[in-house]
Design brief:
- The protein is mostly helical and 257 residues long.
- The protein has one domain.
- Helix content is 68%, strand content 5%.
- It is built from nine helices and two strands, in the order H-H-H-H-H-H-H-E-H-H-E.
- The protein has a two-stranded antiparallel sheet with strand order 1-2.
- Helix 6 (111-139) packs antiparallel against helix 7.
- The longest helix is centred in the middle third of the chain and has 46 residues, at 143-188.
- The N and C termini lie close together (11 Å).
Length: 257
């Protein structure tokens, strides 16, 4: 791999990490909106309808996150295109809008992920409901006391688990979105290129990802349609198994032949 590609990687990761930090805040806000949606629903509901309220929380906050977050990766695609062409292209701004539309389309295809994240929110709220009602039955609490306890415990659950969960979601989606965006950028050049897996020298990298990196370097890069040694098209490949994708921190790099 060329030295200038490694230099580009440093700049690329700095930008990607800044976007990811925004993403973590966005996910946490979306999860908070789901929890608050539930709390608003139960203000006047009897206890026996709390489960129904939890199951009725909206997917919209998470959908909003995807729609806002994925297009942010267009900046990374633009960076990749400039690096590969080794010059400022007159169509840079045009391609930025193209990449934004491509990433917006990917966000619109994230229905299964949105449903899964929302289902996890529901499961956690339902678990809190069961705990609060069980404690209330043991102590003979009235409806007002039960509702106060539920508000308190739901808030604790969000604060205790929400930030770690938001970080995991944002990291996973950032890797997937950024590497897909970089792939779009490489394709947009219309030139022959090779792709490399990079672990970015991070700690705790999966052995299969180290293998993918070493294999791609030894081979002088892979052709665009080739799979890496771990069976993925790029880091964060959504078609790959969870154990290869969740919390991955790797990136894909490209070089013109």
């Amino acid at each position: 791999m060329k030295p200038e590609t490694r230099k580009f990687e440093i700049k690329y990761l700095r930008t990607r990490n800044a976007i990811e930090r925004k993403g973590i805040r966005m996910v946490y806000a979306s999860l908070s909106a789901q929890y608050n949606d539930f709390l608003d629903r139960i203000k006047t509901l009897p206890v026996e309808m709390w489960d129904n309220a939890a199951n009725a929380i909206s997917e919209q906050p998470i959908k909003h996150f995807f729609n806002q977050f994925y297009p942010m990766s267009a900046t990374l695609a633009q960076m990749t295109r400039k690096q590969m062409l080794q010059k400022k292209d007159a169509e840079d701004d045009l391609y930025l809008s193209v990449f934004e539309r491509q990433m917006q389309y990917l966000a619109s295809q994230s229905g299964e992920k949105i449903t899964t994240i929302t289902a996890t929110s529901k499961e956690r709220i339902l678990a809190v409901i069961r705990e609060v009602i069980s404690e209330g039955n043991e102590n003979g609490y009235g409806i007002d006391k039960l509702r106060d306890n539920l508000f308190s415990e739901v808030g604790k659950n969000l604060r205790g688990n929400g930030r770690a969960r938001a970080k995991a979601i944002a990291q996973t989606e950032m890797i997937s979105a950024s590497n897909q965006a970089s792939t779009y950028a490489a394709e947009s050049t219309g030139l022959e290129y090779r792709k490399f897996w990079s672990t970015s020298h991070l700690q705790g990298i999966r052995p299969t990802h180290i293998m993918a990196e070493q294999d791609s370097i030894q081979r002088g890069g892979l052709k665009p349609n080739e799979l890496f040694a771990n069976g993925l098209k790029y880091p964060g490949d959504p078609s790959g198994p969870a154990e290869e994708v969740i919390n991955c921190r790797c990136c894909i790099l490209h070089e013109i032949v």
